[in-house]
Amino acid sequence: MSVRRLAEDQFQPGNFAFNEENTVWAEATIRKYPAGRQQSAVIPLLMRAQEQDGWVTRAAIEHVAAKLGMAYIRVLEVATFYTQFQLKPVGTRAHIQVCGTTPCMLRGSEDLMKVCQKKIHHDPFALNADGTLSWEEVECQGACVNAPMVIIFKDAYEDLTPERLEEIIDAFEAGKGSEIKPGPQIDRHLSAPEGGALTLLDDIKPVRTNLEPQPEVPAEPAAAVPPAEAARPKDTAPETDPKLKTPATAPAAAAANAKATEMEGAPKAAKAPAAAKTEKPSLEDKNRPKGIDKPETPDNLELISGVGPKIAGILNELGIHTYAQIAGWKKAEREWVDGYLNFKGRIDRDDWVKQAKALAKGGEAEYIKVFGKKPR
Predict the structure, then answer these.
(1) Structurally, how many domains does the chain consist of?
(2) What is the DSSP pairing of strand 240-241 with strand 246-247?
(3) pTM here?
(4) Domain containing 77: what range?
């Protein structure tokens, strides 16, 4: 997999914010996830940011990170891992993704790429002269039976020839892309054979099922009652046990009643106590790290891996403004901050103290020396 990096600084906008409609959508999407799991919304939020601006900018990544309370690096990892996210500007009217996997290649996808090179630009991801069109080669898009195919935005265009792709590109370039019907570009319905069905053409004969009404069967006459049984009065008491002088069914009934009484008197199993919720530690706790007034030039705490804009803001509210403060945290203080942030051990996992010591000692150069990479 090729290395994916953000666009150069000259292409990056200064800020990003969801528009009003997308803000409402984003809040509703985040609410779909259980408490403490809102970070699961990172992919849909990044995708909505891309749909709004056409590509994923650094400012959009920072905005999503702040909205979900995630470290910037975590969102950057997602954006750079999934190739569905465009990290550089793409065509404003069409970004054409040409499938180059085996079925499409066997059916002529290389010719489609030549069309893109001729009509748009020789190089993938490069914009045409007007900045309206761009293209790239991608992996399987899931419509192999209709190969070759391309995807433009969210729509698939299948069963393509070079000539048909040229017509589609011209339509999008002219701002008439909505007039092109997505799907197969030949005479077929979805993935059915070209020209119509070739099998199951005969008339289907009805098959009898168990659901159909059945003929009624006349009821059999009732069995005759023996004369002796018929002569006995209906209110005659049941036969009694001569030894007990009680009805023969009494012992069984008494046993059943005793069993029921025993069960009613048995104590019910107690419910297991619900697990107690973890409460945020008190601000008056003795293990809370000592805060300081904000210095004239506070340290950039976001250089510590695991600290994003939101977490940095919370730390500042607690009076934490410098690397030296974090570098001096003892175990009890780390546990207090970890509990206050509901990090579940993340401070030690990310080793904030070691990172802070390196940054406090020699800034970025010392950090690179210790960790072998730049901070963040």
Answers:
(1) 3
(2) antiparallel
(3) 0.51
(4) 9-81
